[in-house]
Amino acid sequence: MLKLFLWLRYLRKKRIVLLSIAAVALSVSLLIIVASLFSGFINAFEQSAVETIGDVVLLAPVKFAKYSQFIERLHQINAVDSATAAMSAQGLLHLGKGNVRAVNVWGIEPESRAKVTGLKQSLLKQKDSAGVPSFEVAGSPDKTGGFVGIGVLGEPDEKTDEYDIKAVEKMLGRPVVLTTGAMVEENNSSTDRQGGQFRRKTVEFTIADVVFTGVYDLDKKFVYLPIAYLQGVLYPDENEPVADQIQIKLKDGSRADSAAAQIRGLWQVFAAAELGWGEYHIRHTQIETAREMQSRYVAELRKQMGVLLLIFGVVSFSVVVLIFCIFYMIVSLKQKDIAILKSCGAASSSVACIFLGFGLCVGILGSGIGVLLGYIMTKNINTVEEWIRIIFGLKLWKSSVYMFSKIPNEVDWASALQIVMWAIMAAAIGTLIPAVVAAKVKPVEILRYE
Amino acid sequence: MYKVILATRYLLKRRITYFAVLAVALCVFIVVVVMTVMTGLVNDFKDKNHSFAGDCVVGTESLVGFPYYEDFISSLAVRDFVEAVSPAIKSYALLTVRLRDLNIGVEIVGIDPIAHSRATGFAETLYYRKGDVSRAFVPSYDPNLLGCVLGIDIAMERDSRSEYPYEASPAEIAFSISCFPLTAKGALAKAGAGLVNTQTFYYSDASHSGLARVDGSTVYLQFEQAQLLCGMAGPVKRISAIHIKFKPDVKLQDGCEKVASLWQNFKRQTAGREQADLLDTVTVQSWKDHRRAFIAAMEKEQTMLIVMFGFVGITTVFIVFVVFYMIISHKTKDIGILKSIGASNADIVGLFSGFASLVGLLGACIGLLGGWVFLLKINRIESWLFEHFRFQLWDRTIFAIGDIPNRVDAGVLLAIAASAIAACLLGALVPTWQAAASRPVETLRAAQL
Q1: Which residues of chain B have a CB within 8 Å of the CB of A26?
Q2: Exposure of B79 by Cβ count < 10 A (0-12 exposed, 13-18 middle, 19+ buried)?
């Protein structure tokens, strides 16, 4: 009770203690904001991969047929929710009037893809419509439709980093030309030798919808066509539908790594029995979770986060020095109080505990304020960024630089807890020596009448 | 004189001051290291962009290009402020590796290698033909073939030491490069006739500019070949840009203004000719403006880091405040005696401000020295960490960085030291004013003596 009384008294009377609380709060909030922004970015990066290509991806070294049979077998695995086939190529897209873009072309089945990824929510025109997304061109059912990333059609505004949606919507229904190609195996009759020949193909399609995922690189680069149409263009001699990858969504709560292992086992059997593949092609088929595919880059981001937190942590260590100075000063000024306490029977350890406990209180109070500040800043970071843009004309966050349209603003509570623990420990360390000094005070020397 | 003696005495006798010095030194050390590395990276990036673009670029974003460039280049070449001029074709193309299913979208740049090397740092980026840039597009294995220079990251993969596995000579690899030829109106020139132009080129060299985007997606072709591919070689020939290098004594701003003025005159003279409307899309930009989109991002990072360290530096101000508050609280009698023998308030302020400056100066010196030594060894430290723990600050297979920049900039050091001293003065401000405002009659009362 006495300790609590003294803590509150010192807190009220010694306003300099507020400085140490402020320093702890400032350091804690800064570290929480940095950790949350970094963690939020990493999580958004991993999540965007999952939303784009599903939880598990099967990437074959060459195109393969009978993918619909394999997808049926995949549904026998408990963990699998849905799966879709895709075919990829690179191309050059002519949008008209001197507008040419290098693009990644994906042949997809929109209905099954919408089950695996967030395709429908990304479509500008069809996101609110009932039914499944489709490549159908309004008013022209005979035309081949395609989806084009919003960044392919235009750049975001330099100042606001927002796309001109009205201008983009005007491009719906526009015919465009795509040049792409693929390796086609040929038999050379004169030498009776098999070989590959690259065939350049040019196709025309109509923009049926625009894809806006909020991930700059995806929006800038991707064009989607019906897989059957793309396959017919690239591999006209194939009798069966072909694909070069399968994207799989797992059920909620499933473990991606064990599901990937099951899928690998299923693929080995299928590729050998149904496709007649040899060991080489089976072994070179990549079956990875979306997170595994990004793991190298994510590890690098985590390293950068660690280095930045270390740097700020080292500088924030000076808070320990600050608390030490303040408490040393308090102990120096309160020597008579301490001497009186000891002469009334308080043990040295008790006296030390008063100041140690007070230091912990400062740490807890400062950390609490820091967590609150960090939470408010992190949650409102996009608003703050917008205000900086309005007041100073400075656009800090651009999707072309940082990949996403919005700054991820979720607080990383795991990191916040660690930071708070370290802050409280730092406060306790800062008060250690002053507490020991207070414990060593000799009443007979301090209370001498001079 | 007594101010210096007292300030030095307080510094030496009051051990609590060492904490303030330590805090300042720690902050200065961190800021020196981080700002030197960051500034080095930004300056290195800017230098590479400058080398890539030349001093000034007269060009258009439109893939259609603009005509009558020969006349303008002729008028530029005779100017006394112009060192070199290089026309360039820029467009998007599909690059296919023959006999492999490798098909990637690239940016093609059509240049005359000699002119381009005079206007920009192109020659320095080559590997096999660095000493003989005129043969940049001549494959060493067959001089009769059409050569192409690939961005280094298209040609090969960087290892964890940021090095590339160059062979003794370029491998004989054929590429198909396909492009949409465009008319002056931007329409497809080969509508109804295949739509694309395709030409086979052979790998003759690799270009390492140090710019990740350029090295990963740019293919250089002979100027005339690129012009044909892009459909710009018609009766009225077109190009995409003119890169200009100024003479060494010409200031960038002045040079660009002169070029802009020349361009306006040229436009007026050419008005009314066929396709002259394409000249309206052309801008005259310094290399900084031309590469602004890339440079601005890095400069912004640097600014944000400075602001964040500014917040962190506030902790240093707090520490100095507390230390001075403590010292002055214990020195009220000394201050009372000084004032009673004639020291003015200004003298007292001067004394403790000088003391604060001394603390800041000492802390800054220690921090700067520690930072300088650390920066000298930083690459060796990183190499040691990589050899023993496989730890790299930046994974060189992901980031296009060579050695960590460690060249200390005197201006940056001065700015950091000045900020440290200013922070100490700020921290000591309130206690100093309190000391100056104290009254000897109250501090020297008999009960307190």
Answers
A1: 311, 314-315
A2: middle
